[in-house]
Design a protein that fits this description.
The protein has a single domain, classed as Rossmann fold. Strands 1, 2, 3, 4, 5, 6, 7 and 8 form an 8-stranded mixed beta sheet that branches. The longest helix is centred in the N-terminal third of the chain and has 19 residues. 32% of the residues lie in helices and 16% in strands. The radius of gyration is 18 Å and the shape is globular. The two termini are 17 Å apart. It is an alpha/beta fold.
Amino acid sequence: MKSSEIINKTMDRDDLASPDASAIVAELNALIKELRSRSLRISSWFGQFDLSGDPLSSERINRGYGYQPLDDAVDDINFPWFLYWEIAWVVMNTPFRPGDSVLDLGGCSSLFGYYLASKGLRVCCVDKKKELVKNADHVAAETGWHLKNYAMDMREMSFDTQFNHITSICVFEHIPLHDRIRINETIRSLLVEGGNFSITFDYRNPSKTVSINSPQDVYEQFVEPSRLAMRGNQVFHDNGKSYLVHPFHHKDASWAQRIQRIRRGQFSWWDLFSRKSENEYTFGACFLQKTG
């Protein structure tokens, strides 16, 4: 891979039009249908089962103004195109091979974890939500996939083996900044030489608790503490496109929703009357490797 190849970047819906991405989208749709036909549960993009689809819920307004599902989406209520982009972009830019070992951080019962396991990878997932761990164990038993699941805090991971790959799909932005850096300081020791760390995250999310707003933030929070090398372009690329709006800023957010987020420390009281009339943030992806 050339160092000039732009893979460390923000999300672009147009990426899903490529032949490789289209093939992954088709496989994801088929996997969802197969698991649904067998009554096997998949966690939604919000990390919980079976979203309601209520147009005024935080999850729906988070999708931003003018959201449009993929034409062939089989379950857009639970799996918006954002998630398809994250999975496709990580899969397309990580050298996964059948039999490789993968440690997925915060992805028990996720579509991503299931997809990797269905492709013949040996997947190990850690998650704090015991319900998701228990369900993923059930799915593994029913499918025969090599899928192990642990109820474990990412800050206290303990394994007696190393992995070919470590992945995480939009989890780190939910972790306090000091813990985020602490976790990334342990990643190198969990990877084999030449192993890959492939992640996605919220980028330019206005919540004070996220703070991933610039290429420098990506470097200081992921690259520097992990002591891993960036694959592809060496400076994170922001294409300037925004697809999501924070529920706090959406014009349809209730006062109760706004006050709740202020109390969580995501916004300040003087932000109470702030609104956004257009989308304001996006997702990003970064690809690192253990070398030397």
